[in-house]
Amino acid sequence: MKSENFETIAIRTQTERSLHKEHSSPIYLTSSYKFEDAEEMRALFANEKEGNVYSRYSNPNTSEFIEKMCLLEGAEDGFATATGMAAIFTTFGAFLKNGDHLVSSRSVFGSTHQLLTNVFSNWGVTFDYADLDKPQDWEALIKPNTKMIFVETPSNPGIDIIDLEFLGNLAKKHNILLVVDNCFATPYLQQPIKYGADISIHSATKYIDGQGRVLGGIILGPKALIADVIGFARHSGPALSPFNAWILSKSLETLAIRMDRHCENALKVAEYLEKHPKIKLVKYPFLPSHPQYDIAKKQMKQGGGIVTIVVEGGIDAARKFMDGLQMFSISANLADTRSIATHPATSTHSKLTEAQRNEVGIEQGSIRLSIGLEHINDILADIEQALA
Questions:
Q1: Lower Cβ count inside 10 Å, N or C end of the chain?
Q2: Please, which contacts does 285-288 make with residues 24 or more away whose CB atoms are closer than 8 Å?
Q3: Domains and CATH numbers, the chain
Q4: Which residues are reported to carry the modification N6-(pyridoxal phosphate)lysine (predicted)?
């Protein structure tokens, strides 16, 4: 039975059963594969026949994970990587060369900033940053050698949002690629490809796994573009392990129900903190006070599980709050079943200068709250006593 429903697709898409008729997909822990004869080996390596030749290229577990993600995201094809940053690096490496130019949202993950400033800049790729809240400035940054627009929306950790339909039209107008990091939203809340994105990227380490267990990433898009990604990835080797692919594919079965609870809890936390006298600012996409609230409502199903706050009193007050938390974990990760507090200025975005952090709204008092699946009363109680 075919279905167009997210939950059914995520649960019922799996590799063909073996002669053992297993109900759950097995783990294919193999680095290589046996060929029936020399001709089959030749045909597979010549891409005349579909099949597995080496697990750095493909594996039944990674293929199942990719197939599910393509169906959920509305993409034709994909390639799974060992980490989310490997997905970003592989996408940049596949499509950017010496002399090319990139326009990126200013608010990007710290390691993405490092790639742009310290890696690809050394390889002759230039870039300009644009602000998500100033869409009127984007087109002026496009040059004759601009090959790509890259954006996080919602952004990490500022929770800024840009209109994906606007960016999709802009990219098509100038015949350049639009690449969207869809990590915070997941395909359950947002499908960038439907709004004109060419490539959608995920750190599957985050909500796709959702339980803080394994690393992974994925690149999704049309077959023609993913062919270029595969060509680069096969030789640079950022492949996802079969075991991690198996975990991530199983995790997708509960993504919808997990995201519903993450979003429900996060909205309640945001509403509570917005009224708290010790909180200077709250950013959450589905709060009416969010500057891009209307855009968020247009392109996102719900607001996600991340709430970013600024505590009154700067870094000292932020540290006091974090050290006062009893249930929340202090960690650099996010999107776990367990609630997590992170101080971006001294961790995930510490390699940015203070001026660069200020430009994307990361203050010394900024704290990123990844709201987990615990009972909402316990989440709010922990926050309340830490702010007391």
A1: N
A2: 285/154, 285/159, 285/161
A3: 6-251 (3.40.640.10), 255-387 (3.90.1150.10)
A4: 206
